[in-house]
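From the shared-data thread, chain only:
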Amino acid sequence: MSLLPPALLLPQQTLSRPGARHELPRLAAGFGPCGLLACGASFERSGGLAELLGGLPGGLTVQVWRHGGGEPTVTAVDQMRAEIRRLRPDWVAAVGGGSVLDLAKAAAGLAEAPETAAYYQTHNAAIPPATLPFIAAPTTAGTGSEATVVAVLTDPARILKQSLRHPSFMPRLVLLDPDLLAGCPPATVAAAGLDAFVQAFESYTSRFATPLTRSLSELALTRIAAALGPLFRGDAAAASDMLEGSYLAGLALSHARLGVVHGLAHPLGARFGVAHGLACALCLPAALAFNREHIRADLDALRARHGLDVEDAVAGWLAEMRPVNPFRGQPLSDRTAIVAETLASGSTGANPRPVSADDVNRLLDALFTE
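Structure, as tokens:
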């Protein structure tokens, strides 16, 4: 087995330290004097946006794109693309959670592409290489979007949630600033953190993992496992570890893919409007049980090397964080379509155990009835 994935793609520069966000204007100016900054409402309410714009070096101008909230949609991406084409910025930056990062990443990546975002999402058409530098500063930990070539987008008109990916989507600059996690609500910490753990674990056990990606995943797993509980309970000192763990998981999944949890979470999130991290957290216990015999050696290795019992840790987090299962008792009117989308997912294709239609149905039964 090769140590490396077939193609290794990493952010050009990553800063990981408190206050790293203050470096954004100076470093972005190296790409050119005109920028477009995407952010969410919470960053503006916190005063972070005003602080950032108040510290611009001379000659640098920055326009702001405000994300309206919720999961990033193909329509919002095309709207931001239109603004990029109007302004012609030298760079695009995003300060926010995974939705803001994916929205801006896709808009920057498709800025000069001739078709709509929805077209590329469904036609498997070649995406032209992006030339617009993208900068990412996450405010949650997280999706790991700051370290991937992937943008996950929803198309409400087609009830579809699917990723776009291209090597040129990788951010040029990443700022991991633990201060940006200050004030993050516990429910968001839980959903984002559990998503990061799922991504670390699924990339660790993926059929396409290599020794390098497994090393990244293992580092992410141990870092997240130690930091998630304390951060949920309000320990700000755990923010750096969570950000770094999420980032490492993003690097791993970008090269190794994921598993059936993400294969399920995308069609379910699109239909039920459930936040991605929450959907992943709720799908995880049944998926762990389904995969157990195929990943027993991995579970034993993590327990032996790090004292990390994955199943016990997940059960403990769910008991402490008490995420509400919005799927329980809901009707599954389009079960056949959900099963088909799950089986067609590249994430499901990377699952360590082969997945059949009957398997997906049993996983859905566990999620919707237990």
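Strands lie at 13-16, 34-39, 61-66, 91-96, 134-138, 150-155, 160-165, 173-176.
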